Amino acid sequence: MTPSSDWFARYLAVRRRFEVGFWCVVLTLQATFNSVVTWMDLDRVAAQQPQLWQPVLWEVTSALVIGALIPAIVAFERRFPVRWDTLRAALPMHLVASLVFCVLHVGGMWWLRRAGYALLNERYDFGPWPLQLAYEYLKDVRSYAMIVVALMSYRFLMLRLTGEARVLDAPEPAPGAEAAPQPEPRPTRFLVRKLRREFLVMASDIAWVQAQGNYVGLRVNGHDYLLRATLTDFLQQLDPERFVRVHRSHAVNLDHVAEIEPLDSGDARLHLRDGAAVPCSRRYREAMGQRAGGAATPSAAAAPPAAAAPRR
Asked: Number of folded domains in the chain?
C-alpha cells in the first residue's frame, strides 16, 4: 500500500465521524459569528443595551434545526444529483426542496425559540408569518444551495480519491466488415480512473456490490470503486451464475462467500473471504441458498461422500 492510499484508508475508517464533525464545526462557527454580528447590529439601533442571550438563542436554534435537516438534504441530493446530464430534471426538484427546507427550518427554530423564551419567563414575538417566511426563504435558499454545493464538491473529491469505474467500450468492427447482430457480451474487465491514473479490474475480482444512490460501489481486492449505474442495471451486465442479489442494496460474488450465518429474524449475514459481512434479507435468502448450493465453487462445493466401511 502506497503512502497516499495508506492515509486515505485511515480516513475511510473514520469517514462518518469526520463528516459529522465537519458540519458540527461549520454550524458552530456560523452560530457564533452570526450571534456576535446580530448583537452588534442591535447595539447600534436599540435604545438600550441589548441582551446577548437573545441573538445567541436565535442563532443556536437555527443551527440546531439546520443540522437536523442536513441528513435529509444528503439523501435527497444523492437521489437527485446535480450534474450536467441531470441538471434540467434536478434543478426543479431542488427548488421545491429548498421551499420545504425553509418551512421546516422556520417552524423548527420558532418552536425552539418559544421554548427557550418560556424557560426564561420571556415572550417570543416572531412577527407576521408571511413576511417572515419570505424573509427567511431569501436566506434559506442560499444556505440550501451552499449545502448542496458542499456535498457536490465532496462527492467529486471522493470520486477522484476512491476511483470511478466504467465498462470498457466494445471493440469497433473492422472497416468494411458488416458486424452480424450478436448478443452483447458481458464485461470481464472495468476501467478505473483514480488520481489521474487508469487501470483495469477483473469482474471476477469483485467481491460484493452495494447501491449508493445513482452509483454502485464495487469492492475489489480490498479497495472500493464507484461506477455510475443502478444496482439492477449493473447486475444485468454481470454473470448471473456468479453474482446474485442478496439485499435491496447489496449483491455478492458467490465465489467470494465463505459462510452463511442464519439470524433469528429470518435474515442472514454473509461472511466473505475478505472479512466483510454483507446482509442477506429474508426475501433473497432462499434463492441465494439455492444458487450457492448449486455453484461449482470451492466454498460451496459439497465434499465427496465417504466410502462405505466394508461389512465383516
From this structure: 2
